[in-house]
Amino acid sequence: MDYATIVQSDYFIVLVGFLVGAVIGLERQFSTETDYSAKIGERMPGIRTFGLISLLGAVSALYSVRYGFKELLIFSTIVVIALIIIYSILRALYYLKDVGITTAVAMALAFLSGTIIGLGNISLGVTLSIFTTFILAIKQTLSNIVRGLEYKEIKSALEIGILALLLLPLIPDVYDPFFHVINLRIFFFYLILVLFIGFIAYVLLRRMEATQGLVTFTVMGGLIHSEATVMNFIRILTEKELRENPRELSLTISTGVLIANTSMVIRTILLVAILAWWDPRLVLLVALVLGLPSTLSILLTYLRYNLISQRKVINVQLESPLSYRMALKFTIAFTLIAFLVVFVEERFMIHGLLIGSAIGGFVSNSAVVLSVISLYAVRRTITLDMALEAILLSTVTSILNKIYYAKVAGASNHILKRVLIDNSLLIISMILMLLLVKPII
Questions:
Q1: Which pLDDT tens digit goes with each residue over 54-66?
Q2: Based on the domain organization, do 243 and 129 belong to the same domain?
Q3: Which of 53, 311, 347, 382 has most Cβ atoms within 10 angstroms of its Cβ?
């Protein structure tokens, strides 16, 4: 008997039909026994009850489809609705004396899961059961999150949801009319991604201590835009503190810049892995070359962490969970740099690609990665070694530009020296790895 025959058999549907409800009942039994049974001396609905409810739905749907007994499914639905109503009334009047409906809704979802199984859509029924159990299991976590939320955080989350769920599907899935490389929907998605990561960073930073806030801010910010992160991070420190404690703060600031660069390098690896997943060779080469500097910077950050935690670190203060202005400016810069790289490559071929990558890395390394992979994968105008060199060159300039942005933000010469040393360490390790992997390209 093959796999397809087993899955379609009545016995398998009956078994899975019971299990999808039993999984939900298992969570309800643990949860309600912990919360209520000690108080009321009664067992609440658990594995058997929920399993039998979903089994009823599975058998009823099975007979309705295969044997044309549609009345059975209707009758079973009425019975389950009546049972849920009776349970809710008894629960409210005699047992817990409250009007909570979570368990009642879980019963209905268990019956629905079993019914879907009986109708033949096993994957959907199992998915619904697992997702329902997951939502029920994280009750305490969700409660803690909701209690700690501010109104502006809820409003920001809803705004992101509107952009992602309502507006994103309306954006045309078209490419630019000039080079046919830039996809409009991809860039709108990137705008939403920038807002979402910024929102997560805001929520985390508001709940963390100073040193944890430092690490989280630079890690999350580096994933979004490492240059903006460096400038904002340095400007958090007042001019007075920079004048009075330049050497004490230099280690903290240089480490923050190092973390931002590390996040940017890791982001480059992830972007290549996502955009060029179909070409394992390019992904492996980028991961090998950038893996060493990432590892070294992570180890160096870990060694410095204890020293930083013992020093005074200013808390990160963010005015709003969302910054549309920053996200829009970054997305526009992202688009312009992507066009610049393609334009220069069209005019000057290989040298233009390298020049464009260097320019792009100074503004937005992500834009260069997207453009280079588009040239390599979509247009097929550059080779593997050209794509690798362009990505690495933009990464190098994106590391070096932190010195300029740190200077603009008001960093002292002592801080700039530390940043230069850290940046040099990252770039030298990249060059060494490139020399090692060059023969296999």
A1: 999 999 998 888 7
A2: no
A3: 53
